[in-house]
Design goal:
By secondary structure, this protein is of the alpha/beta class. The chain has one domain: Muramoyl-pentapeptide Carboxypeptidase, domain 2. The protein has 6 helices and 7 strands, in the order H-H-E-E-H-H-E-H-E-H-E-E-E. Bound molecules: zinc ion.
Amino acid sequence: MASSRRSLIGAVVTSPLLAFLPAPPALADSIAGEMRRALEARGGWPTAIWLRRQSGEEVFADFRRPDGAWLTAGLSALSWAMRDYRSNAAVAMNTALIEVLARVQTGLSQVHGSAVPIILQSGYRTPESNAAIEGAARNSRHMMAQAADVRIPPFTPQQVAAAGAVAGAGGIGLYATFVHLDVARERFWRGAAAGG
Ligand SMILES: [Zn+2]
């Protein structure tokens, strides 16, 4: 399991497969190229993530060892940080999503020249919370712990969306002030709602 996962991620990081997701025209941004170069230059696994909730609460979690082994304590801290914003219900977040978020943050931090946190607008949602959000999909991946709505200032949502594509996100929703990233099948959309 560990080795097959390693080879999968390794292939994504080091080969032209990085370009597997055709960037929508709107995402034709130099950030994508800078992200690819940054991740290729860095190599290896992302092992940590810096995430801040809108309330200001934040976590800096080491979620994996350099050899690729997952660190339960870090994953638990992250899953708590990504808990439902209304009920505080927390579930184990999907590790592929954490992988994508960590690569986005690592790559954009490299591009920026210093670490930039991910500002989390929405992570896990209970069905009740999801139903209360205007514009949220009825079968939202947030309810499966497979999606996050994020901002990463000073990067624009369009730049974060481009970074998400490079990092291997499946679904990418571009909104005026944030980006939805998930690890379901590849798709792209623009949203106008307050919650995606
Ligand atoms: Zn979303």
